[in-house]
Amino acid sequence: MVATNPEWLSLPGTGIISNFALFIASYIPVSLLTGNAFGVILERWSKRLYISMLMVILITVVSLVAVPQRMKDVQIARHALVTRPDLHAMAWIRENTPIDAQFLVNSFFAYGGSSVVGSDGGWWIPLLTKRGNTVPPLNYSAEQGPFTNYRE
User: Fold this and answer.
1) What three-state secondary structure class fits 17?
2) 140, 107 contact by CB (below 8 A)
């Protein structure tokens, strides 16, 4: 909670990690605890082979039914920042522009207006082409930049 709300202790970094991200990440300890609970149950029931086999079959069947349904929810192209056409554009930029070129890229305010972020593949220009752009990496709001007043 302190990582998502550093202002509670007068620490810098407010808005970098949202409470929503913290709650989404809670699946990690919950999955570990759930897996451990299943392991304990299976260990206690393992003395009876037919119960162990029944549990394995039940988990397998539920997984085979549930996974394909959940895979329909995954929409990679909808949330991708860099697409195949962007990669072609990056290759063109590398081959046809000077190393000191600067690119104006789409951006918007995020994290409660505390940071500017890229909205498409243009945000990746520095990483993929070694050229500059108008939107720095997201960590610019929490780290010291390469020169004074970088954040501004």
Assistant:
1) coil
2) no
Instruction: Count CA within 13 A, CB hemisphere, residue 131.
Output: 23
Kind and range of the H or E run holding 109: strand 107-110
CA dist., res. 41 & res. 54, Å (int): 13
Residue 9 parent element (H or E): none
Q: Per residue of the chain (152 residues), what is the pLDDT tens digit? A: 888 888 888 888 877 788 888 888 888 999 999 999 988 887 877 677 777 788 889 989 999 998 888 888 877 777 788 889 999 999 999 999 999 999 999 999 987 787 888 888 999 999 999 999 998 877 777 777 777 877 77
| Residues forming beta bridges with residue 7, ordered by sequence position | none
Q: How far apart are CA 104 and CA 84, in angstroms?
A: 20
- Which letter does DSSP use for residue 116 in this model? E
